[in-house]
Specification:
Shape: elongated
Number of strands: 0
Mean pLDDT: 83
Distance between the termini: 57 Å
Helix content: 40-55%
Radius of gyration: 24 Å
Strand content: under 5%
Structural class: mainly alpha
């Protein structure tokens, strides 16, 4: 029998406990994904929510940068650019 004697400090300041209700299929998937990453289900859910929050918060800045770009005329020299030219321009 092997006993894990590693000391772990849990810093819960500023953390809130929540209860999450999941269907059995989703709960199993989440537990498996957490195990693959060798983290707790709680840490896995926290990371997923933090990524979703960061993505949501970065969207307005990305939209503002896109909308601040100057328009580019597609038709130049009397013709529209080819598909390849369009993709090269965006790289």
């Amino acid at each position: 029998m092997c006993v894990d004697t590693e000391f772990v400090i849990h810093d819960t300041r500023g953390m809130k406990n929540v209860t999450v209700t999941l269907d059995e299929r989703t709960a199993l998937w989440a537990r498996v994904e957490a195990a693959k990453r060798d983290i707790s289900l709680s840490a896995f859910l926290r990371e997923m929510l933090e990524r979703a929050q960061a993505a949501q918060e970065s969207y307005p800045g990305a939209m503002q940068r896109y909308q601040s770009r100057q328009p580019v005329a597609l038709k130049s020299a009397g013709r529209y650019p080819s598909r390849e030219e369009l993709h090269d321009r965006l790289r």
